[in-house]
Amino acid sequence: MSNIVPILCAVLAGGSTALEAFVNGELGKNTTALTATFISLVVGSIFFLISILITGDLKSLGNINDINPKLLIGGVLGGLVIYFTVRAIPGLGVSNTLTLIVVSQMLIGFFYR
Fold it and tell me: 17, 95, 108, 113: least buried by Cβ within 10 Å?
């Protein structure tokens, strides 16, 4: 019973990934993959900045200097996920793209433990 919240978060992450791929794929059709990635990241950044302000977690932004700079690569990797997804969808479709993403995640997760 104590795993309900993590399970729910994982399911919501999966659903968000599918919806994000579809929406960003459509956005990429109206712009370019690079522009769609930029727009997606900017909108996401604004959303989370507002969330930080609403929750009163602004103090945590002050601890950025304590973060190992190597860990900032996560932001680049997140952007690459969006970019490569937007590039793949026109050729593969959403379902095939997401299937390959999940298989890739599983393989990388298996070898990187």
Answer: 113
